[in-house]
UniProtKB/TrEMBL annotation:
GO terms for molecular function: DNA binding. The keyword Manganese does not apply. The gene is hrcA. Belongs to the HrcA family. Residues 115-333 form the Heat-inducible transcription repressor HrcA C-terminal domain. GO terms for biological process: negative regulation of DNA-templated transcription. The lineage of its organism: Bacteria, Pseudomonadati, Pseudomonadota, Alphaproteobacteria, Rhodobacterales. Coiled coil: none annotated. Pfam families: HrcA. This is Heat-inducible transcription repressor HrcA. HAMAP family: HrcA. Keywords: Repressor, Stress response, Transcription, Transcription regulation.
Length: 353
């Protein structure tokens, strides 16, 4: 089967222009583009009948589709992918878009969570889509750990990091916990935690429990294991997913059930974390169109995503925008790319250039 790159090179100039103008017209208006519309914009004078013949050829190749009999054409998912990969021209983000994103960086304190929350809101506002920000886990060395009983079925674990940050998270402890077992668990962790990051501590816990089982009550050992497992989200490498702009998707799609389905997918954090793995497979911004993005059951959506890095050039998170496949890719791609670079510089302490 001919791949999309070969398919694009095999189109003659006339077919390429018809294809490009159909896609651009659809991305701009969301409506099928008809042959009579194209007669007014083509670089060479062509009859509507000639353009219809070219459109039929493009439809046969799987690049265009006719949603209704005698209507104009819209691009297929393959057509959009071919347009994005081979025809789309990407420029620098507009000064107003850059200013809107940059304005969020200087607000409030230095808390990373607050910063990324503001970035998500700004990205949603600028692009008029739903924004995604996948935040990194806090990996500073730990200074102190405490367990607090809230009820028979709820407990709080408090972590104080060496850089002064404090994080709290509620979790479900093993049954039968007592104030004594909680103190014992905290004492055990504090004896081995100092100077270690959370991920390093988890590696050490198993060895320490095995070696010191006689010193540590089984109930306290269970609390140590379950509490720290909750903190690590059972192996997930990312702290949380920030989603902003649900109303924007409702406004663009107009189908409440489709948007509900999309956000059901978004709430599966383990699946969403995969988009960072996908982003790592290529350089810079990645674009996932419709069903080629396995993270969404909603095939009418596209995801534009870019990872951001820390000072050691290690990928620690990602920012992205979700919208209908009829996204203004030429505008969205540079905004996402710029935002990811700016977040990376801020988290690396370099600020704005």
């Amino acid at each position: 089967m001919t791949d999309k790159t070969t398919l694009l090179t095999e189109l003659n100039d006339r077919s390429r222009e018809v294809f490009r103008r159909v896609v651009e017209g659809y991305l701009e208006t969301g409506d099928p583009v008809g042959s009579r519309t194209l007669t007014r914009s083509m670089s060479e004078r062509l009859s509507a009948a000639t353009i219809r013949n070219v459109m039929q050829d493009l439809e046969y190749l799987g690049l265009l589709n006719s949603p209704h009999i005698s209507a104009g054409r819209i691009p297929t998912q393959l057509g959009l992918r071919m347009f994005v990969d081979g025809i789309l021209e990407i420029s620098e983000p507009a000064a107003s878009d850059r200013a809107a994103i940059e304005a969020t960086m200087g607000e409030g304190g230095a808390d990373v969570g607050s910063l990324l929350d503001r970035v998500g809101a700004a990205l949603s506002g600028v692009t008029h889509g739903a924004s995604l920000v996948l935040t990194p886990k806090h990996e500073a060395p730990i200074r102190h750990i405490e367990f607090v009983s809230l009820s028979a079925e709820r407990a709080l674990v408090v972590l104080v990091f060496g850089d002064g940050q404090v994080e709290n998270r509620v979790f479900t402890p093993p049954a039968g916990q007592t104030p004594s077992s909680m103190r014992e668990a905290a004492n055990f962790l504090n004896a081995i935690a100092e100077g270690r990051t959370l991920s390093e501590l988890r590696t050490q816990i198993g060895r320490e429990i095995a070696a010191r089982r006689m010193e540590l009550d089984k109930l306290a050992a269970d609390l140590v294991e379950s509490g720290l497992a909750q903190w690590e989200d059972r192996g997930e490498p990312y702290e949380r997913l920030i989603v902003r702009g649900r109303a924007n998707l409702l406004g663009q799609e107009g189908d409440l059930e489709q948007v509900r389905s999309l956000f059901d997918d978004l709430e599966r954090k383990r699946d969403i974390a995969e988009f960072l793995d996908l982003a790592e497979a290529g350089d810079g911004v990645r674009i996932f169109i419709g069903s080629e993005n396995k993270l969404f059951s909603l095939t009418g959506s596209s995801l534009v995503v870019s990872p951001y890095m820390n000072a050691e050039r290690k990928i620690i998170g990602a920012v992205g925008v979700i919208g209908p496949t009829r996204l203004n890719y030429g505008r969205i791609v540079p905004i996402v790319d710029y935002t990811a670079q700016l977040v990376g510089r801020m988290l690396s302490g370099q600020g704005k250039r």
